[in-house]
Amino acid sequence: MRTLIVDDERLARNELRRLLENFPKIDIVGEAANADEALPLIEDLQPDLLFLDIQMPGKNGFELLQAIEGKAPDVVFTTAYDEYAIKAFEFNALDYLLKPIELNRLTEAIHRVEEELQSHPTEAPRPSSEPGTKILGENDQVFVKDGEKCWFVKLGKVRLFESMGNYVRLYFDDQKPLVLKSLNALEDRLDAATFFRANRKHIINLNWIEKIEPWFSGGLLVTLRGGDKIEISRRQAIRFKDLLSL
């Protein structure tokens, strides 16, 4: 993977370069200290991947992405601040690494990049021109922060969303973090071809359904891989059958 490092701190660039020596597939083709240096390098070198700092003199990392013409590389943000994580997700970043960068987190980020290249070998994500309006599908990744814990998770791994008052609980792997968002607002952002509003409290990932059974009053009971059992209300069962019928 042809890789460009963009960071205004020379020591940070050197440390990241040293850590990346652990990954033979990473080919560092250049470095830049700011957006003005990075833009012509991106055009000339056509990197597959950017390790991009956010706070820099002149244009910040987000403004740099907006200024790229043509196909944009995959992006892993590197920053000392976690306050930009939600905005990073709106720009389709593959990961968000907090400085000082640890080797185990860098390894996770490289694995995500490799998975993305394998699933979309001819595509590269573009920053959204209108953040907040993009419909999110199973291949999109979202940043989730619950207390001191943070995840960057691909939506396809989330099997269930459950309303908990003003919060929504996400179910993926063995994790169940809470995010401050209403289920209705979340439903507006999710791709209806993959994520289905089962009832007032739940949105399910259709790809995780293992079994469907008739239920009371014309409803349905679905069992998800992992054992979660969710009732589809009678009203939503009609939509569900229409959605999945030939």
Report on the structure:
The chain is α/β, with parallel strands linked by helices. 28% of the residues lie in helices and 29% in strands. The protein has helices spanning 10-20, 35-45, 61-67, 85-90, 103-119, 183-189, 234-244, and strands at 2-6, 27-32, 49-53, 74-79, 95-98, 141-146, 149-154, 160-164, 167-171, 178-179, 195-197, 202-205, 209-214, 220-224, 229-232. The strands form four sheets. It has a five-stranded parallel beta sheet, with helices on both faces. The chain has a five-stranded antiparallel beta sheet with strand order 10-9-8-12-11, with no helix packed on it. A three-stranded antiparallel beta sheet has the order 13-14-15. Helix 2 (35-45) packs across helix 3. The longest helix has 17 residues, at 103-119. It is elongated, with a radius of gyration of 20 Å. Residues 116-135 are annotated as: Disordered. Residues 2-114 form the Response regulatory domain. This is Response regulator.
Helical segment tally? 7
Overall body shape: elongated
Range of helix content: 25-40%
> Mean pLDDT, rounded to whole units?
86
Pattern of helices and strands: EHEHEHEHEHEEEEEHEEEEEH
CATH top level class name of the largest domain: Alpha Beta
- What is the CA-based Rg, rounded? 20 Å
CATH architecture of the largest domain: 3-Layer(aba) Sandwich
Spell out the CATH superfamily of the largest domain: Response regulator
| Adjacency order of strands in the biggest sheet | 2-1-3-4-5
- Tell me the number of strands: 15
Judged by helices, strands and strand pairing, the structural class is alpha/beta
Domain Response regulatory: 2-114
InterPro entries: CheY-like_superfamily, LytR-like, LytTR_DNA-bd_dom, Sig_transdc_resp-reg_receiver
Region (Disordered): 116-135
Protein name: Response regulator
